[in-house]
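Q: what does this look like with iron/sulfur cluster bound?
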Amino acid sequence: MQKETRSTCPYCGVGCGVIIESRRDQIIGVRGDPEHPANFGRLCSKGATLHLTATREVTQQVRLLRPMRRLERGATPQTLGWDAALELAATRFANIIRRDGPDAVGFYVSGQLLTEDYYVFNKLAKGLIGTNNIDTNSRLCMSSAVAGYKQTLGADAPPACYEDLELADCLFIAGSNTAWAHPILFRRIEEARKRRPDMKLVVVDPRRTDTASSADLFLQIQPGSDVVLFHGMLHLMLWEGWTDSAYIAAHTRGFDELKALVREYTPDRVAQTCGIRKEDLAEAARLFATSPATLSLYCQGLNQSSSGTAKNVALINLHLAAGQIGKPGAGPFSLTGQPNAMGGREVGGLANLLSAHRDLANPQHRAEVAALWRVPSVPDQPGKTAIEMFQAAADGQLKALWIVCTNPAQSLPDQATVRRALQRAEFVVVQEAFATTATCDFADLLLPATSWGEKNGTVTNSERRISRVLPAVPAPGQTRHDWQIAADFARRLQSCGIGPRQELFPYDSAESVWNEHRESTRSRDLDITGLSYAQLEQAPAQWPWPEGAATGKPRLYEDGVFPTDDGRARFIAVKHQPVAEPRDARYPFALTTGRLRDQWHGMSRTGTLGRLFGHVAEPAIQMNAQDLARRGLKEGELVHVTSRRGSIVVPLQASADLASGQAFMAMHWGAEFLGGMGTTGHPLAGINALTNPAYCPSSRQPELKHTAVKILPAELPWKLVAMAWLPDDTALRQREAVRQLMARFPYASCVPFGRQRTGVLFRAAAHEAPPDALLEEIETVLGLNAAGALRYADRKRGQRRSALLTRGPQQTTLDAILLAGDTRAEAWIRTLLQEELPAQDYGRLLLLPGTAAPAALAPRGRQVCACFNVSEDAIVAQLARCTGSEGERLAALQQRLQCGTSCGSCVPELQRLARRTQPQQQAA
Ligand code: SF4
């Protein structure tokens, strides 16, 4: 019988509600929950395909389903039982703690954990073991926002809510490609702008993203110049008399110092430093200050910076100075990247925080938490934050690492150090749902965890709204919930003589954990003592919601009273600091990183679905087109991208969205998809081999958004491309097998493709043809060694081709192909294979090097609409036939091709294409 379960999407911080459809132990569908106040039934391209990432085939091929142990590094892991696994973990940790002290171990957890998981891990580290060495990948995502809120408003609490998106008169988006990173919020913005055409959208970003393309005013600033911009806006507000002196006098402190500081930030200086027009600066200041309600949205563009906190406070200064806070449609609203970064903050799951927004530095707070946990004390020294933790392990100070639901061998900057840390640590535990992450390769012990659709607990989204996460299907294999694993390990550690004797982890359900967390919030700013699991199952709720309250609070500080000693918000006067690593003659490009529309983080989940590679099929680095021409580089050419820390090889792509001197590469391309063997004899480690671990001194968030790099031709003339349709029940395993071969080439990438079926595309390049045996290995994995496969080889010229044609009842199709040496025919052969077109006439052509494309096989172009599989070429052709206003042409396009009518993720791109494509009659 079919069952429906209300839960949430596990990807971004919008926190959309989903309804999971399941039959017996199988998830069979997902749709948006029409009653969830974050999304009202909508899902983006990622959320709408969640069920396809949880099929039996995917689970069996890529999930970690039983505990495993490596007897030595690099060996194949062996299965063991839970008891043996946790006993081993407890013994190793206890020995290290006894020998080197509690600070010799560290826990690196995740913003994708549920609040209950987070709570138990935090208590395990700080309460039982007595170390504050617990940090999270949320450090990479929002710790600057935390520090910014605390320094200015007195508490880590986003003061606005999603409804404010619809009530704002001016939306000021800084450092956020909301259209791609928080798509459902962007749908709400689009709809609000349609209803209220006077609403203004100002976007600040070094890149012309889809969000920027939708703006009324776009400030394309130089990377790292945000503080200059915000101070320049305040300078103008003061000059023009646009500040709210009554609000400043009644509710704030410290304005005089800031006023004195921003005097230096004259329009001339600001325009020059930011690389924008003075008129645009003035217009931004006017819209921000004089609109009846201004809401700012910001994300990693501000946070992932060596001045992340400064950027946050400089923006919040503007809200306080203009009185744009504490009223409908106004306020500084930080968007969280991860689904439960907020929940982690609530339980104090960072190295410098304690439960319920308490501070480690405050003795009374420490005493309160110790009393709640029934332990003698909690340590007073801040623990090691993400970057520090891995640096300490690389230096040999940290001996044991426990990594939960995150993939530091993909996502942390400076991968050389991270990998040294994982190799040098004496004992590495990886608690994971997916067996395919790069970090799993470094684990001594692998512990299988439950995942989306299986977990039970709560998450909090960007607007402080807590939702229930409910299991639709039983835990597969031997997987266990993360909090259960932590609690079981904690009890075994106690049996080894670590920590107090009494029962500290008496939980029998997620609810029992949550109830303890709830009690910790009593009388705190995030008090949720008025809520219960049962109530949250009826409807998600926003904190604070203290006992006796009838509702939560959508908007904070409406009374102008802030949670500081004197009830006043603080202006913070911070000077602009340049990026940690400015570009120079040796490293002349500023590399920034960001998201793709249809992918999530390290792609351990989204990377299982070929259809999510339709929009961006393969890794590439983007550069300004004129920079390409000036340096004699060509689109598609392979380049070495090198920073002071490492190097990768990747294809080049021209982009009109970037200013000269800048480069962009998506954050998702880790070693799981992009690899090769470096000249130093170490496998290339993906995008974060390059990025900079320099961090903000207040938030300790690293500067992932800016790295100085050089970009030089790679000169790898021998090329290979191989692709194949594979059986659903083995495709992902076969992809893993091909992936293992990436390190045998100086450059290689390996990605899935396909909508109804699963295919794998492997690409490689080298100085010269590799041994035949290596090519045969690739052929074997992709099924090209079958008896009927067609073959051609010219060893002298480094040429090799093999093709597998399959005769079906209707037609003959190309199922697999390998082109080595001469790959010029790739485009048409790729169309033939990926579109599953009749191939009976092409058998001989497939084996001829350099064959021109047959007329019938023109490539169909890049996919824009993932839901209806509509290509850019088809959209442009249709738009050329549509007349009228931009809105009318879009409506006609959508009626004809359906693109953008389901999840809506491609709508900003359709708008861009509509602006770019002239109607044929007009063009004539
Ligand atoms: Fe998931 Fe998309 Fe909603 Fe984010 S916007 S929570 S990724 S459905």
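The chain has a mean pLDDT of 95. Residues 9, 11-12, 14-16, 39, 43-44, 46-47, 182-184 surround iron/sulfur cluster (CB under 6 Å).
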